[in-house]
Amino acid sequence: MRIGELSRRTGVHAHQLRYYEAQGLLPAARGANGYREYDDAAVLRVKQIRHLLGAGLSSEDIAYLLPCATGETPELVGCPELLAAMRSRLGRLDERIERLARSRDALADYIDAAERSGRESYPPFDDAA
User: Fold this and answer.
1) Over the stretch 17-60, which tens digit does the pLDDT of each residue have?
2) Cα 55 vs. chain centroid, distance in angstroms?
3) The domain spanning residue 40 has which CATH number?
4) Which terminus of the chain faces fewer neighbouring Cβ atoms within 10 Å, N or C?
5) How many domains does one find in the chain?
6) What's the pLDDT score for residue 16?
């Protein structure tokens, strides 16, 4: 099938499919006319890629995972390379979450301090004026 049909069957834009190919995630043969040709397994592969992207994995992570993937969702067979890649990604996500939580707490503290100093600096608002 050509890229347009794969796009229709998966709901993924053609430019995204070309990106997946460039990242080594989606193999494509070339016809005599130079057009990309995909086999029926490409539909499943694209669905797997989309699910893994939805889990926050990078295309580099997914390249490691796809050989261990089965089914649409996909299920992952616990090969050592896969587990190491997923643990690494999870660690990076945990670090990001911790940084964001610290930033959120600092911002909330600034807001509280600004509200307190604003109440102390200005007279109360009087509706009667």
Assistant:
1) 999 999 999 999 998 998 999 999 999 999 999 999 998 888 98
2) 6
3) 1.10.1660.10
4) C
5) 1
6) 96
> Computed over its alpha carbons, how large is the radius of gyration of the chain?
25
Cβ 72 vs Cβ 48: under 8 Å? yes
Q: Which amino acid would we find at residue 123? A: P
Nearest to 43 by CA among 69, 78, 82, 17: 17
3-10 and 14-22 are packed helices; what angle lies between their axes, rounded to 10 degrees?
110
Question: Are residues 38 and 31 in contact, defined by beta-carbon separation less than 8 angstroms?
Answer: no
Q: Where are the alpha helices (DSSP H) in 1-129?
A: 3-10, 14-22, 41-54, 59-65, 80-121
pLDDT at 125 over 70: no
